[in-house]
Amino acid sequence: MLSRPSVATYVRFAVTALAVTGLLAAAPATANSTPRAAAEPTSAAVGVKMPTAVADRLGTERGALVDAVSADVLSRSHDARGLAPDAAVGRLAEEGRKVVVDVRTVSGDWARGVAYVEASRARHGEPEGWLYIAHREDGRWVAGLEGDGEFADHVARSPLVGAAERRTMTAYAERRTTPDAHAPHTSHASHASHASQAPQVGVLANTNGMLLPWMPDYYMTLTGGPHSHDGGSGYWSALDFAGGNASGLVRSSREGTATSMCGAGGGWTRVIHPGGFSTDYYHMRNTTYYNGTAIGRSALLGSIGTDTCAGGSATGAHVHWSLRTYDANYVGQYTWLNGRTIGGWTWWNGSSQYSGCGTRLGVTACPGTAIYNRTG
Questions:
Q1: Hey, CA dihedral for 244, 248, 251, 253, is it positive or negative?
Q2: Calpha distance 238→318 (Å, rounded)
Q3: Taking Cα atoms as reference points, which of 134, 130, 168, 330 lies closest to residue 257?
Q4: 3-state secondary structure of 317
Q5: Which site among 188, 194, 254, 313 is 20 to 30 Å from 295 CA-CA?
Q6: Rg (the chain; Cα; Å)
Q7: CA 189 and chain centroid, separation
């Protein structure tokens, strides 16, 4: 695991204008300025952070790198889709949201980090975020966001990706899935009907023994059945859990490569697993800092909480757990839970978001039910 960076080591940028040649023009904080706290916004629309050593290595290339990553983020963001970059950041600013670009590591012509679009704090929802790797080619930065072709290419070639991580991430990037095996909003009213479909679904829905986000053979309470990651449109990919006898400790659903999406102290972690899936864990507290770190199954990530480091809202301590994979065009997205088995429970959509249930050995568990995490 990499060392945990101190807030004081970060150089913060104040966004001054949209550049003619890129998304933004950014100026480094002056030498006499006081470092801001990690949660303090650096601008109304775009925030950039990076360790001082990384900023020094990039020099005058900092703005061009941020331009490249930010442009890709806005092209992939659901809330910015179809808008020009300046219009997109303007809309986000009106809602008190911003794009955040975190440049964590630089080596030669390569850079790596995390970028995300904050969720609205005025309504329930979760952020959109990506790992990225960027390469400087012929004098310009080419950014690859998790899920696109450039990302897969960069993972294969970048010295910033270790051999073990490359094996996991490349397999993930090359994964093809069929997310339309079920319509995303199927009712769970007839479990008998679901049972008759289970053998066919099982072939497509295999999650390779993935667990629920706590220690096996302990229980938590299901507080929200399948719902979309952001509480709006999209596949119903998320579950909410709280309480139980697992001491509130949140653990990885399987082995893989973990990244703290908000940085040190933030409550959002993503784990990329072998076999084409990744999982997100949001609202945690007391988190362990990971930065492309190899972890085992049931590795400690943090504790249930109400953290909103990247926007959104949380009522009561819980973990918001989401399943991700790639579609047929290699675009990373939150994917369907309906008919998939996680932690020994097969999950079914309800007639509305959050109302769906899990089934196991003839038992149906709906929101409000304590369920054990099972390995088989």
A1: positive
A2: 13
A3: 168
A4: coil
A5: 313
A6: 20
A7: 31
Residues 53-80: b if buried by 16+ CB within 10 A, e if exposed = ebbebbeebbbbbbbbbbbbbbebbebb
Nearest one of 6, 12, 98, 100 to 50, comparing CA atoms: 12
Question: Domain 201-372, what fold?
Answer: Glucose Permease (Domain IIA) (2.70.70)
CA 358 to chain centre: 24
CA 143 to CA 131: how far, in whole Å? 10
Q: Is 155 helix (H, G, I), strand (E, B) or coil?
A: helix
CA–CA separation, 250 vs 171, rounded Å?
25
Give the containing element (helix H, strand E) for 279: strand 278-282
3-state secondary structure of 69: helix
Q: What is the pLDDT of residues 156-174, one digit of tens each?
A: 999 999 888 888 777 776 6
Contact predicate 179/235, CB 8 Å: yes
Q: What is the pLDDT of residues 135-149, one digit of tens each?
A: 999 999 999 998 888
> CA 257 to CA 246: how far, in whole Å?
23
* Helix 62-76, helix 85-94: angle, nearest 10: 80
